[in-house]
Amino acid sequence: MPVRKFRSLEEWQESKQAFWTACDDPQLPDRIRTHWRRWAALVPFPNPRGLRKYRSQEEADADRDRWESERIARIRAERVRKP
What we know:
Oligomer: single chain
Number of strands: 0
Distance between the termini: 29 Å
Helix content: 55-70%
């Protein structure tokens, strides 16, 4: 998406229709689904969700290294599968 600059607040408000969707717009669910599909294609394996507690910084680092390694392995495996 290109960056747009506005010289005034009025200019922004005039073009705001391109940026905002009303909450009662019937196309909103489809636009949200499209957005999430595109995002999932860009980041196929997101970070683990939720709050995690660790006893030490080393334990936290080890857990992060583990899931990063798993993610890298999954991405490599998927790239190998694609023709």
